[in-house]
Write a structure and sequence with these properties.
Elements (H helix, E strand, L loop, with lengths): L1 E5 L2 E4 L4 E8 L8 E6 L6 E6 L6 E3 L7 E6 L4 E6 L8 E8 L11 E4 L3 E6 L1
Parallel strand pairs: 2-11
Antiparallel strand pairs: 1-3, 3-8, 4-5, 4-9, 5-6, 7-8, 9-10, 9-11
Length: 123
């Protein structure tokens, strides 16, 4: 399984970005997908998750209401729309494919990871 992440960059506080994660090599449409992030000196943390069908989504409290996870199974791609970005959102963002079809907050339930994309939010 390969996950190709893109869309990171430098943005001012209050701005928006959309991250994309294109999957290949596995039945994407039956896998739950998630986004995690890791800031310098911190543990990797859950950001958002989506079930195989897109019917269920979960968010970390810190991003709820600002970030939106979505997926297009026809394109084997999952997205993370990030609005109202804050300096504390600065991190490397990783997409991941879950072992099952459900959305999951638990890092150990994901078995494939993308390479990460850096998001930097300036104040």
């Amino acid at each position: 399984v390969q996950l190709q992440t893109s869309g990171g960059g430098l943005v001012q506080a209050g701005g928006s970005l959309r991250l994309s994660c294109a999957a290949s090599g596995r039945t994407f449409s039956t896998s739950g997908m998630g986004w995690f992030r890791q800031a310098p000196g911190k543990e990797r943390e859950f950001v958002a998750g989506i079930s195989w069908s897109g019917a269920s989504t979960y968010y970390a409290v810190s991003v709820k209401g600002r970030f939106t996870i979505s997926r297009d199974n026809a394109k084997n791609t999952v997205y993370l729309r990030m609005n109202s970005l804050k300096p504390e959102d600065t991190a490397v963002y990783y997409c991941a494919a879950a072992k099952s079809g459900i959305a999951n907050r638990v890092r150990s339930e994901y078995d494939y990871w993308g390479q990460g994309t850096l998001v930097t939010v300036s104040s």
